[in-house]
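The passage that follows is intended for readers who have already worked through the single-chain material. We present the inputs for a multi-component assembly, then the predicted structure in tokenized form, and finally a short commentary. You are encouraged to pause after the input and sketch how you expect the pieces to fit together before reading on.
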Amino acid sequence: MIKKYWSLLTVIILAAMIMSACATATTAPVATVEPTATTGAPVTITIWHQWSGDYLTAIQAVFTQYMTDHPTVTIVLDAPQDVPSALQVAIPAGEGPDIIGWANDAIGKYAINGYITDLGTLGVTQDFLTSTYEPAAVNGVVWQDKIWALPESQEAIAIVYNKAVVSEADFPTDPTDFTGLLDKAKSYAEANPGKYLVCNQGLGGADPYHEAPIYFGFGVPGYVDDAGNVFLNTPEATAAGTWIKDFSAYAPQEASYDICNAGMTDGTFAGWWTGPWAIANLESAGIDYGILPMGKPFVGIKTLMITKNAADRNTADIALDIIKYYTNQANETQVALANKTIPANTAALNDPQIQALSTIKGFGASANLGIPMANTPYADAQWGPVGDATQAIWNGSQTPEEALAAAQTAIETAIAGMK
Amino acid sequence: MTRKPKTFAVFIQYLFLVLMTIFALYPIWFVILASGRVGQRLFTLNLLGMFIPTEFNFDNYQIMLAGQQQPFLLWMRNSAFVAALTTIACLLIATSAAFAFSRFRFYGREAALILLLAIQAFPAVLSLVPVAQLLTAFGLYANLWGLVIAYVVGNLVFTTWLLKGYFDTIPIEIEEAAMIDGCGPIQSFLLIGLPMARPALAVTALLAFMGGWGEFVFASVLVPSPATRRTLMVGMYQIANSPAVPWGLFAAGAVMTIIPVMIVYLYFQRYLIGGLTLGGVKG
Amino acid sequence: MIAWSGRRKALMILAFIGPTLLGILFLNIYPIIYNVFISFTNRNQYHPNPDCSVLVTSIIEPKCWPFFKASTGLGTPYTIQSPAFANYETLIGQLATRPGLIAIAEILLCVVPLIVAGQVNKYYNRKISRPISGSGVWIIGLALTILIGWLVNFPNALDQLQTDSDFFIVVFRTILFVAITVPINYIFGLAVALVLNTEYIKGRTFFRTAMIIPWAASTMFIIMSLVWQFFFRDVGVINQLLKIVGINGPTWLNSPTYAFAIIILVNLWFSYPFCFTVILGALQAIPADQYEAAEIDGATYWQQLVNITLPLIRPAVVPAIVLSAIGAGGFQMFGTVWAITTGGPSRGAGVPGATELVMVYAYKQVFQFNAYAKAGAFAVIIFIFLFIMTIYSLRITRITEGAFE
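Having made your guess, compare it with the prediction:
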């Protein structure tokens, strides 16, 4: 009788083996770049990133071109689900990626943890940075007078509206006119029941990055500054919180990237408060869009960092070469034209083709108004509490004053824990 | 109870069963429907489409199986590998330990049993990082074998107790008779103990398989990359958390994940009722 | 098995139990030691790396082992806290102060009548006749509890403990969750099992098979939880159904109470098949002549249920109830909550969210805030608590063994 179970288990194992055989036969090229045949001293560089979808295609093309030019190098792109936790186990073990593609707010935290290498030790100088990249981008990658990454693009969010449904007149002309925005949202919601003027995935979700234009637009200088001062229990912040509470009557209660995207496509939302990464989706949906700055958003710098393990594995020089290649003028122009992002490379930004893109004008104007995202570890403490406080305001658990006061205390405690 | 039933009572009972069945099955039905719809929506504005297949095609399945965007089949292979090995290892290890606890008398037996049970009281979430680092120190980073080891140990406590309870109900006289005929302990384990514990073995195999198939948190920490080595649950969660969720693909993947397990489950379910309670009484 | 002794027996036993003990030692006991150690340090995201020159650290912390490379981060290494118990102090906070102790005393006082009622029942059960029936005693005990609770202002005591202390908020919330979800699961399980056990219902096998399916899906909780989360979204199935009837459904997941109710509902969906399977198995073990004898004596359905069925299934069901209450389906519930609400609609910064149960809180502390020391202290306290509960539950399950006599 025991044979019955052995046979079932054998079936399971056989099934696993058959599936593996099938898998290797039928699996077509997947999101990772296929390794090419290498001769000489083959090197594999792994990049962990956060790019996805159509955005990724243009980026992949750059790396594929590099591989064609340098046949001994194989570049593998991968997007683990929870990069910070994965790094925690990988880096001390000597595993993990060689390059990390991430926004600059992680620089302080990764430097403290020892995940990334100071690029100065690899020969990158401050002069090189200032001569190649935009000043805001340069500021974003330098921390404690060391260079931790090379910037590749800048991003800021703005209101992207559907020209077929609304026009510029439906939005306030002054980016800091929030009362006007509230009124316009109200009249739009009343004229079109069931539809909303703007969808912001930070309101309803807990996303301080998307909520930033509102807070900073009301005059808050930043959530946390580089010295560790927190600015959340100020009257401006409370005014912003009250505005958010009032706005919740004329905006979707639940919002996420997914919901906003779907809503734009089917007409429920007239506008989407988002950044360049969403443009590809809107274009493929065939929406004629306009971009309008609103508030003072965070200006994030997307960067490429080199991990400490790359230095240990002696792949750091090749990795540096790759990220310099990626952020040179020609490639930045190519990626920016395809993905409609704002390049960090000065020469690429000043290229007339790029300047002519409407998204550059729109998002660029927004970025000019914005506040740069800090890369200190203090900044890392701001995300949780601000998100929680705004969500509490949004669903009515706390009044704006209480919520922001609680956030202030929480961030101050966290920062005290650092010192 | 053999009294003649009142019609009203019978009606209420049937109604209750039907409602509970709808409650039980509707989410699965919904996922099946969603997998047939092309596009980005988990929902459709067509309310009827949430209950009846208004449109159904297999595009999502084809995309998932062909692996154009995600190496779904590889994930499935990884999960099957991990689950199968977990089952076999768990059966071997837990059964032998349970047999020993049930049959032998040795110093510290009860203490060991209580230790086994009490160990489970520690929040597993907090042992994630130390265990991951421990396995990494043994060279098992991003290695499916590390997952297998972790799952086997995780299942050990419950299955050992279950099997021990079952072995307790088997009278010891048979084995004593065998011993008089010169049977050693290992032989009596293999030839007498195991065959008599079939229902409990079935339950153990089932629980171990499903534990290995469906575990998510530890897999996401130990095997985060490359994408071809992830397990199914981590991959599906990643799909559901990507910025523009391809819900149709997610639903198709979900259906393909659930159906095999469902089949295995239904195959084993007649053992479940007996196996669980008999083990549970003593355990 | 018993005949041989000495070294041969020891080796034999080792062969059988060895792998189990080894696995438990490395993967269960070591993390406990590690967490106990960490809970005395100040490890958080600003002091992430160990100071390997200290002997104890270099043994316990994996990053100090030769296999791993030394870290070159800019952060300062973590050290033992200066009052070593600092983390425990912050967690338990209020408890050591006078108002906290008073609050604990008040809460314990409220439980006293119930314990007394239990003892009184046990005393009277051994007697032939008793002045008050069993349920009468319980009702009096309950009434006394409520009276005392009102007198000492029980809600106030709870609030007192919960201010400035994440620990109590999370633990009380989890206890509340368990107290609601376990009875609901088993009552539904009992109802289904009773119906499925009656002979005149046709198609029982079909219903039984159909209702097992959520249990099969329960190990893939991530997927099904995401589906359930979808049902309760603003544009989800429930709200669309309500819209047909003309009601504008609320945003379920944004409201603390509704979110809590939703996770109880989803947990019901995942758990009731297990419950009814256990109960059904126990029901089928009851010999039919018990009911026939009762019918001859003229007992009603309800009397049969309470006096025959329930006591006879108790030995099989109570262990299951206890295990699920302190196990992954009850106190240690994590996956479902994480997938649906990730800790729940936020109730403010620095305060746990509305559905943040014990495990969710621990996970967030470790993976989002990297507050290892705090999470370690939390884990140790919870471990001690659950350890005691487990030992106590073993006593209970042995007590109920006598029901067949």
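Commentary: The CA atoms of residues 155 and 300 of chain A lie 5 Å apart. Residues 36-154+300-371 of chain A form a domain with the D-Maltodextrin-Binding Protein; domain 2 fold (CATH 3.40.190.10). How closely did your sketch match?
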